[in-house]
Amino acid sequence: MLAAFDDAIADGVDVVSFSIEGKLPAPYFEDAAARSFHAMRRGVLTSAAAGNFALFGGCVCNVAPWMLSVAASSTDRRLVDKLVLGNGKTIVRASINIFPKIEKAPLAIPINGSCGTESLAGQSYKRKIHLCDRGSNGTGPLLAGAAGVVVVTGEPDIAFAFPLPALAITQDQFTEILAYVNRTCKPVGTVHRTEATFDSKAPAVASFSSRGPNLISTGILKPDLSAPGIDILAAWTPVSSNLKGNRFATYNIISGTSMACPHATGVAAYVKSFHPDWSPAMIMSGLMTTATPMDPALNPGGGELVYGAGRLNPARARGPGHLRAVTGNNATACPAGGKRGGTADLNYPTMAHRALPGKNFTVHFPRTVTTVGAPGSVYTAKIVSSGPFIRVAVAPRKLVFSRLLQKLSFTVTARGALPAGNEFVSAAVVWSAGVRHAMANLGLRRFAIA
Predict the structure, then answer these.
(1) Rounded distance between C-alpha atoms, residue 26 and residue 28, angstroms
(2) Phi then psi for 50, rounded to 5 degrees?
(3) N or C: at which end does the chain have fewer Cβ atoms within 10 angstroms?
(4) Element (H, E) at 369
(5) Strands 424-433 and 436-446, how do they pair?
(6) What DSSP string describes 373-407?
(7) Given this model, what pLDDT does residue 27 score?
(8) Alpha-carbon distance 33 to 18, whole Å?
């Protein structure tokens, strides 16, 4: 893996797509973070997966400030399947089912509750729909001659593929099905084929997508942004494995931050094609400051700690108007002299601060921007959603650019005190000049002290 970074740099690539992640972040100068640092020094941006461990106690990984950390979010297309019970009740959930509809097949619960191959051996479950509350990939029911399978999953927003007609449901839905089975003499169900429907709640970050905070440097907000990573049509090699049930194809439906990361990689390459002289930090800034804001109500768990600067916006990314870029010694997220801390003055597109509950704080975030838009642009700052617990100010409130590539500075100051029950407070500074808008997100989080 590390040699692949060196080869990519030697080959002269502009962007490295790094869809490898873990449960927790590694130190900055180990393994991939170290190689991506060398790539950055040679003008190569590394776009990396944020991680798939939110449901297993993990935190966002690939958090080095020179890496673009990408969370996974939904699109407005949702793949759903339906199980219609004999009493007319319809259970709807995300699923991939390309098989013909099963009409009124008997519902069966395995004797010991397991749908494993060994547990089903010797039992009569042919032409029945198996109800599996312990999870199953469908292999056991398939070998037992089942007509279909209903499986409980902890990731209800993902459409799973099975080797037979199937539906992946929540525990609550499974309990509802059991109630019908227990009060019915001959319970039956009908499994429909998958349909593509419109998801009005999109984009929403995936349940599995690893959240912040950044455990290495709490003053650097991670993930950086979100991109499509749920039910993505992706290339698939038939050499690696089949799609279950001896079905081979050159494509598949895949979910994960490893699907979101290539979207960001592609947009980064797209931006680079218009601006070949832009550095990796400039491209990161272009992507992050033009991201589309996301609704925190649809993304519980900490606002920007879930989705970063927002949803990747390819159309706006290539013309952000002005940019912030990590430069000089601060590229290592360390202040001059090598002392610990000091991330607030890192010229990063977003801002974060660790605050203790009930304690007054004041923090300053100095930033320098470079205009890449039309000369004569005048940007005015607006504070968005700072809430009652903090006060956010920007000085100066207006930036007047007289020439291309001119550098101007401003400082964002946040002060206040977070209550004990408030885990996360966020705000945003939006710089506007006509139709151009660039956003700088600010996240303030209360951390428990172990």
Answers:
(1) 6
(2) -80, -20
(3) C
(4) strand 361-371
(5) antiparallel
(6) S-TT-EEEEEEE---SSEEEEEESSEEE--STT-E
(7) 84
(8) 11
How does pLDDT run across 174-197, given as a tens digit for each residue?
999 999 999 999 999 999 999 999
Which residue type is seen at 410?
A: F
Amino acid sitting at position 154: G
CA distances (Å), origin 96, targets 239, 299, 376, 380? 22, 24, 53, 48
State residue 386's pLDDT score: 63
Residue type, 289: T
| Token pair of 94 as six digits | 């995300």
Rounded CA gap, 15 and 194, in Å?
36
Q: CA-to-CA distance for 55 and 251, rounded, in angstroms?
A: 27
CB 70 within 8 A of CB 228: no
Which residues, 6+ apart, have CB-to-CB distance to 42 below 8 Å? Answer: 9
Please state which CATH number belongs to domain 2-75+204-446. Answer: 3.40.50
Task: State the fold for domain 77-198.
Answer: Glucose Oxidase; domain 1 (3.50.30)
Task: State phi, psi for 191 to the nearest 5 degrees.
Answer: -105, 120
Give the model confidence (pLDDT) of 336-362 as tens digits: 444 554 677 788 999 888 888 888 889
Residue 55 neighbours by CB under 8 Å, 6+ apart: 154, 155, 207, 208
Whether the predicted pLDDT of 14 surpasses 80: yes
Q: What's the rounded Cα separation, in Å, for the pair 310 and 350?
A: 11
Query: DSSP string covering 313-351, please?
Result: -HHHHT--SEEE---GGGGGT--TTS-S--GGGS--SSE
- Angstrom distance (rounded) from CA 419 to CA 143: 56
